[in-house]
């Protein structure tokens, strides 16, 4: 583009969108297809999840109820960057304007979108790995998440594994001695991890960490009643124990199942704590009621476990225990439909110097510029209105580190 051509709002917005898209990591790999649904219905969208059925045998008709499971995504986060430039800058080429304003601004915007997308690890109940041990080999990373996602009948295509920097570089080092020469060369020379075991491997500094609660289960924490549903009556805690949303527990004898065949996978079912809980002290064993997800369902089309827990079934924490809070990375494996990122078009106001709104690869961005006559500058803002959500928990798996 010639330097004599004035920059327009459309040029700025389109260039900004391209730069933003190229800077995305996790946010580029999730579902972004529901943008147009928000134009008429407002800020909340209900997304229907697939119905499930059971196969019966025999000639007799067996009619099954339809539950219509769903999840909602709320678009309420407005991210913006703002800067100003003088009238002389209007004659810059796109490349010069990008270097001075758009590239640093869009890098910040992309970082925020990645941060909020990866924060959805908190809605994932599947967990593998060992807290405090950095996954550095195929067997301690890809193999673990791959088996768990296969157990959950996750699609084989579009699988991604996002590490924090420590996990990514440990994994790269672990591949140096690999006999798969192209992969080993890329890991050693460039620090680049390609597709391994069906997963595209990425590094993102925004991988979240779980600050655990305080709890020691050596006392023998158990279920106090046979039950189903989204809560557990438990006993055996210390009076100082605390519980954090996102911690993962297992229950002895309660196994995960294949969602289609409903046959046990031989792996204990993972349950995510969804609310803080209070320990009630007594002369006997201190008790607590834990809110969990997924709910315990032992039969029917939406069955989640091999069997319901019984009285005295023992509880264990996968995400770490101790007498003090500890923080552990939550590396994340997922397919595209595990999470959603939705951006929606913002209104174009009147009475401004110029404005534009563009959409690129299902990301909508608005640019507005005004004129400050006192200082001969053009205050400019670039906005995105978006929301993130965990669509399908079963299509993702956390990898502890």
What are its keywords?
seven-stranded mixed beta sheet; 31% strand; 401 residues
Q: What is the fold's blueprint, element by element?
A:
Blueprint (H helix, E strand, L loop, with lengths): L8 H15 L14 H4 L2 E5 L21 E5 L2 E10 L7 H25 L8 E2 L13 H10 L7 E5 L1 H10 L6 H10 L4 E2 L2 E5 L5 E3 L10 E2 L5 E9 L10 E4 L3 E3 L6 E5 L2 E3 L12 E11 L18 E3 L9 E9 L3 E6 L9 E7 L2 E7 L7 E14 L5 E5 L1
What does it look like?
With 401 residues, this protein is of the alpha+beta class. It has six helices and 22 strands. Strands 4, 5, 6, 7, 8, 17 and 22 form a seven-stranded mixed beta sheet that branches. A six-stranded antiparallel beta sheet has the order 9-10-15-14-11-16, with no helix packed on it. Strands 3, 18, 19, 20 and 21 form a five-stranded antiparallel beta sheet that branches. It is elongated. The relative contact order is 0.22.
Task: Summarize the model shown.
With 401 residues, this protein is an alpha+beta fold. The protein has helices at residues 9-23, 38-41, 94-118, 142-151, 165-174, 181-190; strands at 44-48, 70-74, 77-86, 127-128, 159-163, 195-196, 199-203, 209-211, 222-223, 229-237, 248-251, 255-257, 264-268, 271-273, 286-296, 315-317, 327-335, 339-344, 354-360, 363-369, 377-390, 396-400.
How many helices? The count is 6
The radius of gyration computed from the alpha-carbon positions, rounded to a whole number of angstroms, is: 25 Å
Sketch the major β-sheet.
7 strands, mixed
Sketch the topology as an H/E string, one letter per element: HHEEEHEHEHHEEEEEEEEEEEEEEEEE
Distance between the termini: 48 Å
Unreliably modeled segments = none
Q: Specify the structural class.
A: alpha+beta
Total strand count, please?
A: 22
Q: What proportion of the residues form beta strands (DSSP E)?
A: 25-35%
State mean pLDDT (0 to 100 scale): 86
Overall 3D form: elongated
């Amino acid at each position: 583009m010639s330097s004599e051509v004035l920059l327009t709002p459309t040029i700025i917005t389109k260039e900004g969108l391209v730069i933003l898209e190229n800077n995305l990591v996790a946010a580029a790999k999730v579902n972004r297809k529901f943008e147009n649904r928000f134009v008429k219905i407002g800020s909340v969208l209900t997304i229907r999840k697939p119905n499930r059925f059971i196969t019966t045998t025999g000639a007799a008709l067996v009619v099954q109820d339809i539950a219509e499971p769903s999840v909602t995504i709320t678009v309420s986060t407005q991210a913006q960057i703002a800067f100003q430039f003088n009238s002389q800058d209007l004659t810059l080429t796109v490349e010069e304007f990008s270097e001075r304003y758009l590239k640093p601004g869009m890098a910040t915007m992309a970082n925020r979108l990645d941060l909020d997308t990866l924060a959805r690890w908190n809605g994932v109940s599947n967990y593998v790995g060992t807290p405090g041990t950095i996954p550095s080999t195929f067997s301690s990373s890809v193999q673990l998440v791959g088996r768990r996602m296969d157990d959950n009948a996750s699609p084989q295509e579009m699988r991604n594994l996002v590490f924090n920097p420590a996990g990514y570089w440990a994994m790269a080092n672990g591949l140096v001695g690999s006999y798969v020469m192209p992969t080993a060369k890329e890991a050693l020379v460039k620090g680049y991890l390609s597709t391994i075991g069906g997963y595209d491997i990425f590094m993102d500094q925004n991988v979240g960490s779980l600050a655990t609660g305080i709890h020691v289960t050596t006392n023998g924490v158990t279920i106090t009643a046979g039950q189903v549903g989204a809560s557990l009556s438990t006993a055996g805690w210390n009076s100082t124990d605390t519980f954090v949303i996102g911690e993962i527990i297992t229950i002895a004898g309660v196994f995960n199942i294949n969602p289609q065949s409903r046959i046990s996978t031989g792996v204990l079912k993972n349950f995510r704590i969804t609310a803080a809980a209070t320990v009630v002290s007594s002369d006997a064993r201190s008790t607590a009621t834990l809110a969990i997800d997924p709910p315990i369902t032992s039969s029917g089309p939406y069955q989640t476990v091999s069997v319901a827990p019984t009285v005295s079934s023992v509880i264990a924490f996968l995400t770490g225990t101790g007498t003090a809070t500890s923080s552990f990375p939550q590396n994340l494996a997922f397919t595209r439909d595990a999470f959603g990122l939705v951006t929606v078009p913002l209104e174009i106001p009147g009475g401004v110097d110029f404005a534009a709104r563009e959409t690129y690869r299902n990301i909508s961005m608005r640019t507005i510029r005004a004129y400050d006559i006192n200082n001969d500058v053009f205050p400019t803002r670039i906005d995105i209105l978006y929301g993130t959500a965990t669509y399908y928990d079963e299509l993702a798996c956390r990898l502890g580190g």
